[in-house]
Amino acid sequence: MSVTIASVQTALDTYLGDSSTDRISSAERFNAMTEATAWLLEELGNEHMVDTYALDFLDSVNYYKVTTDLANLLVGADLRRDKADQVISFARKSPREIAEEIGQGSKDPSWAIDRHDNETFLVVNFRSKYDAQVISSLDTITDGGTWTTYDAGSDALNLTTDNNEFKQGSGCINFDVDVSQSGNNFATIYVPDIGPIDLSSYEDLGSFIYWVYIPENLYTTSLTLYWGSDTAATPATRANYWSATVTTDINGNALADGWNEIKVNWSDATMTGTPDSSAVVYIEKRLTYDASQTDDTDYRYDYLRIVQPEQLNFHYISWKVGTNNSGTDITAYTATNDIPFYSGQYDQYKYAVAHKAASILYYSALRLPEQGAVEAGQADQALARYRKNFESSKVREVKSFKIHGVNLRRRNKINRRY
């Protein structure tokens, strides 16, 4: 059978020996049952508490903001590839350790939850079956072709190689903006001879990813990428191409001062003419701003690549306590017809929750610590029974820091003094 909070409250009232609201209000009962359910989630972490989230992993991209998508994330449980590709196990590591391994170029299959600046990131590191294809590392203005500014119709000028400030490789390309040059409120650079590059396997599947540096982002409104198959084209003459515009970075954040990682999905692009995805020779990048933009220097682009996502399944335990009568997820009980997360799966959890809620109310509302301790003990005993029936799904962090040059597993005999 399935249970609602009404049945949990019936057990709670029994343990309290009181169903009236003269000493304990309905709101206090709901709060105590919410806290008790949260306690159950934190302590057990069983399989039937696990939710899943489909993550599109992009090779060369390791940090994925999940604050909005996983607003109720309590703790991670596991990360898995598709069933057909499940030949490796991902280790859970600390954010610090996985960051170091990423920096060292390691592809050890691992994941972490990184929380900072009121945001939550799922950090993933492994060798995907879809490697990123570098279109131009943008280390120099002649990387893969000759990059140039569109002086006639945009505000970009002074395109140079920058070996001082860059994100990847040995450099990036740098340009300035003179808003009186064209009056078109955008700055464009392009390469007319980058290929031909066969991108047919990525058509409508892949995503272009690159870095853009905005020295002062007061007025930048969007970034547009063009790619096509017209030989020796310019922004004025291109006729067969795709184009797509973005207004945020790869994680959906507003464009900011400094480096921004950008993702442009091929599936979001508009096709003009009849471009050939197997022979891409033209790439154009446009940075658009509003009429308040002033002259500025040192805009930068770096590391343009394309990658097909590999879908991973992230298993996690949510801090939602259940749903309301309409099926909407809730993080606090407010009505007797609310449905706890375990309803219909393991209804006996209601007794542990009721005992724990009773202990909370004895302590906080009735100021009877002895009775509270008894009820807490009953809740712990019930919890111990549940642990025997269901294994925890929580994956503990793997500690694998190594001291270089020191063998901690020597098999040779150790000299001893007697």
Give the tally of structural domains.
3
Largest sheet: 6 strands, antiparallel
* Rg value: 29 Å
Distance between the termini: 70 Å
Low-confidence stretches: 401-418
Q: Could you report the average pLDDT, rounded to the nearest whole number?
A: 91
CATH class of the largest domain: Mainly Beta
Shape: elongated
The strand count comes to: 22
What's the number of helices?
A: 5
Specify the helix fraction band.
10-25%
The name CATH uses for the topology of the largest domain is Jelly Rolls
CATH A-level architecture of the largest domain: Sandwich
CATH-defined superfamily of the largest domain? Galactose-binding domain-like
Structural category is: alpha+beta
Q: What oligomeric state do the depicted chains represent? A: single chain
Order of helices and strands: HHEEEEHEEEEEEEEEEEEEEEEEEHH
β-sheet strand percentage? 25-35%
